[in-house]
Amino acid sequence: MENNKEGAELEKSKVHIIVEIIEYVPNAVVSKTIIKKATGNITVSSVASGEELAEKSSPFDNYIQIIDGTAELLIKDKKYQLKLGEGIVIPAHAMHSFNANEQFKMVSTIIKSGYDD
Q1: What is the pLDDT of residues 11-70, one digit of tens each?
Q2: Left (φ > 0), alpha (ψ -120 to 50) or beta: where does 7 sit?
Q3: In the chain, which ranges are E strands?
Q4: Closest to 108 measured CA to CA, from 22, 13, 40, 9
Q5: Based on the structure, what is the number of domains in the chain?
Q6: Is 19 strand, coil or helix?
Q7: How far apart are CA 45 and CA 64, in angstroms?
Q8: Which of 32, 7, 28 is nearest to 19 (CA)?
Q9: In this structure, what are the phi and psi dihedrals at residue 4, rounded to the nearest 5 degrees?
Q10: Is residue 116 part of a domain?
Q11: What's this model's pTM, rounded to 2 decimal places?
Q12: Which CATH number belongs to the domain containing residue 82 in this structure?
């Protein structure tokens, strides 16, 4: 497996196993870009056990799919336990954060075009 440069997209027209394109790094959150366009992006992230992604919001809907482990997600103070294969849409402008009670990997898809408020 070759690492792509930071910010570089995943190689096109090449089959890959999504859960294997990113590794866990102790005490870290690692992200890799699959596609990055002005109209949106897809990234895959690994979150080590004990890490958290700080509370934030996005002006766009964000579809999250768990591809390994289990993630704790807080959206507007409501807690969700997302397991392997599960997904959820984080609504635009909603404050949210992630907690890794155990390590997990996720795919995040944001579409920036055609958004209606």
Answers
A1: 889 999 999 999 999 999 999 999 999 999 999 999 999 999 999 999 999 999 999 999
A2: left
A3: 29-37, 40-47, 52-56, 62-69, 71-75, 78-82, 87-90, 96-99, 104-111
A4: 40
A5: 1
A6: helix
A7: 10
A8: 32
A9: -85, 160
A10: no
A11: 0.88
A12: 2.60.120.10
